[in-house]
Amino acid sequence: xxxxxxxxxxLIAEDDALVRRSTAGYLTNQGYEVLESVDGAxxxxxxxxxxxxxxxxxxxMPGLDGLELIKASLTENINVPVIxxxxxxxxxxxxEALRLGAFDYIIxxxxxxxxxxxxxxxxxxxxxxxxxEKGSRQELEKLVQQxxxxxxxxxxxxxxxxAERRAQEQMVLRxxxxxxxxxxxxxxMIAIIDKDHHIVRMNKPMRSRIGLPYQQIxxxxxYFLLHDQERxxxxxxxxxxxxxxxxxxxxxxxxxxxxxxxxxTVPYTDADGTLQxxxxxxxxxxxxxxAEKEKEKLQSQLLHAQKLESVGQLAAGIAHEINxxxxxxxxxxxxxxxxxxxxxxxxKQIQQIADKAPSVIKDKIYDALGDADxxxxxxxxxxxxxxxxxxxxxxxxxxxAMKEFSHPGNKDKEAHNLNRIIDTxxxxxxxxxxxxAEVELxxxxxxxxxxxxxxxMGQVILNMLVNAAHAIGNKLxxxxxxxxxxxxxxxxxxxxxxxxxxxxxGIGIPERIKSRIFDPFYTTKEVGKGTGQGLTIAHDVVxxxxxxxxxxxxxxxxxxFIIQLPIEESIDDEEGLRRLE
Length: 581
Hints:
single chain, alpha/beta, Rossmann fold, Beta-Lactamase, five-stranded parallel β-sheet, 17 helices, about 55% helix, rod-shaped
C-alpha cells in the first residue's frame, strides 16, 4: 500500500473465528485497518457507526446472514463494496448476492490469501473510480446547472429583448399603418421612386388611377406606368431632382389619364443622407386649368368680338368708300364702251368713204389710221373695256361680300341660308387660299333656311377655310411650283340636320393630338402663326347652335370637318332676306 494514500478500512463479518482472525491478520499486514464482527447484526451496527471502505462477509451466519446484511445496508443507503467469502452457499446464492450489488464472490477455503487482497484492491479501485465519476458527475451537474442558470438568464434577457423588439415592431407597424392610412386619405397621388425610376411604394389614389394590382405596380418604371412613355418625360422633375438633389415642380398633361397634373418631386434619402430617389407628388389641377382656360377663353372671345366689331366697322367703311369710285368707274366704262362703239362706226364710215375717194386721199386716210394703230385698237379696245367691266363686277361682288360679312350680328338667331354665308366667306377669304388651293363648292340649292347667328357662323367658316389653306400650304412647302390643293365645301340636308363638310387635301392631323384640337390655345403652328383659338371658337359657336362638330383626318392625306346644325323651323327665303336686311 502507498504511504501517501489513506489506510483502507475493511469490515470482516465471519462467524468462524479461525477464518476471521487469519484473514484479519493477513489484511493488517497488507496495510488495511480491519474491523471484525462475528455475525450479521454486529456487522450492520459497525457499518452504521464506522462506515468502512469495504465489507468482507460470509453468507451463512447466525441471525442476520450475508444476503440479509447486504439488503439491510442497501435499505439504509450504506454504499460500500461487498465481497462475499463463503463455502456453504449455492450457485443461486452467489447469483443473488451479485444481483444485490456484491462486488466479488470468493469461495472458501481460500488457498491463496493474495486473492482476497487482489479482490480488495479491485474493489477499492472501483470505489475510487466511482468517487471520481461521482465528483465528475457532480462537477458536470454543477456546470450544467450553472450553464442552465446562465441560459435561463440569457433566455430571460432574450425574451425581454424580443418583447421590446416586438413592441418596437408593433410601434413601427402602427406607424406604417398610420402613415399608409394618412397618405391613402390624401387626394394627391403619391409614390416613392428610386433613382432608377422604379416604383417603391404608392398610395391608394395613385393605385386607383393606374388600375393595376399592387404586385404588378411595384418595381415597374414610373414613366411607363404613370406617363405611358417608353422613356422619362422631357421635363421630368424626378430626373432634375436626381441631378441636383432639390425639389422640382412641373405641370404635365397626362394623355393616358386625360388630366392636367402638377407634379412635385422631393429628394428621398437614407439614414446616411445618401440620395436614394424622390417622393413623387401629383396633384390633379384639371379643374383649375379648366377654370383658367374658361377665363382666358372668355377674355379671348371678348377681345375677339371687339376685334370683329372694329374690323366689321372698318370693312363696312372701306366697302362704302370703294363702292362710290367703283360706281363712277363702271359708269365711265359704260361711256367708253358706247364711245368706242360710236368711234368704230365712224372709222368704218371713213374707211368706206376713203375706199371711194382718190387714191391720194385714201392713202393719207389709211396712213393716219395706221399711225393711230387702229387695227390693234379696234381689236383690243373692246376686250379691254370688257375686262374692265369684269374687274368692276368682281370689285362690286367683293364689296358686297364685305358688307354682308361685316354686317352687325344679331344677338338672337335668325333664319338664314347657310349657302349665302359660305359664298360670302369664300369670296372674302380668297386671298388666304388662292395661292395654295382651288375651292370647289358643292352646295345644295334646296337647302332650307335654319336659325343662325350669321356673323358667328361666318367666322366659323372663315376659320375653317384659313386652317384648310394653311394645312395645304404646309404640305406643299414654301416652293409649291404652281401646285395647288383642293378645298371642297359641301352642304346637304340630312333628316333633321343641315350638314356642312369642309375637306382639304392638306397634311392631316396626327392621331395623338386629334382629341385636343378644340382645346383653347392649343396649336401646332409656329409662334406668331396661330393663337389656338380658331377651332375653339368654332366648337363654341356650333354648341350655341345646338349642333355637332366632328373631324376625320388621315395623316398625309387631308382633313374633313363635319358640322351638323339642327333644322328647328324652316322660313321662306324672302322672309329670311327681309329679316336679314
